[in-house]
Amino acid sequence: MLLALDIGNTRLKWALFDGATIANRGAMFVAEVNTCVERFGFDRMPIARVAGSHVANNQSRERIERQFRRIGHEIEWIRSSAGACGVTNRYDVPERLGTDRWAALVAAWARGLAPCIVASAGTALTVDQLDERGVFLGGAIVAGYHAMLGGLAGNTAALSVDAGEWTAQPRNTRDALATGAIDAMVGAIERGRARLSSTLAERGQSEAVRLVLTGGSAYRLLAHLPPGAVAIDSLCLEGVAGIARAGEAQVKREPADVQVAPGAVAEPTLRA
Predict the structure, then answer these.
(1) Does residue 100 have an active-site annotation?
(2) pLDDT of the residue at 251
(3) Domain spans of the chain?
(4) H-helix or E-strand containing 138?
(5) Which of 18, 43, 92, 100 is flagged as catalytic?
(6) Which architecture characterizes domain 2-80+237-270 according to CATH?
(7) Which CATH class is domain 112-231?
(8) Cα–Cα distance list, 140 to 98, 116, 120, 122, 165 (Å)
(9) Which residues, in sequence order, are bridge partners of residue 53?
């Protein structure tokens, strides 16, 4: 079986794939990765390969690698590339697209969801445009829900990061914060869809653009988007598994002084 990992800035998610079927899955905070093997019993699972996407710092990646090396597995980290699994990457430097974004795009294409916006709502919100041909045309990165609230609290003396609930007419500061953050994220997603729809119309295409959400805040946004929008928790993990099966994953080590920012990857140095 193939164990797929999705390591972001806050959480580690995993899924054990038996072919294309998820046999088991789980998640934990990245700060707790030193116990991941024992906590989930990876040493007792019938794992043949481990593949992953990693966009956090080097220290967390190295801790995870040590955990799996102790049970006889080297992690194959997926790479963003100019093309994989039927998807074409139009990033200026394809290798610098975050592997989490790349994996989610590959999975959306494999599920037959294109043309679509793939919106990953985690620490950051990424809003990526995938056309009907499987071409990633580009995407935006904005602050995620908690990052937005934290930025306001850190730069405005009278505001707290403690947000309330979304409401159409906020009448207190806590609800105003929650409403503003959600509306900003929804607006970014809807603008992305409008841009992709405009591009398709210029080609004479009338197919509706789907909205595909993933990430920790996906369900927070889903109720505020038009009918037909979907949230798929396992999207990145499905893409990691697909890319690994296609041979686009390698064991690698990045230089110790390179820090990987959300939504981007450093150009890797590979080791055998």
Answers:
(1) yes
(2) 60
(3) 2-80+237-270, 112-231
(4) strand 135-143
(5) 100
(6) 2-Layer Sandwich (3.30)
(7) alpha beta
(8) 12, 14, 11, 14, 26
(9) 6
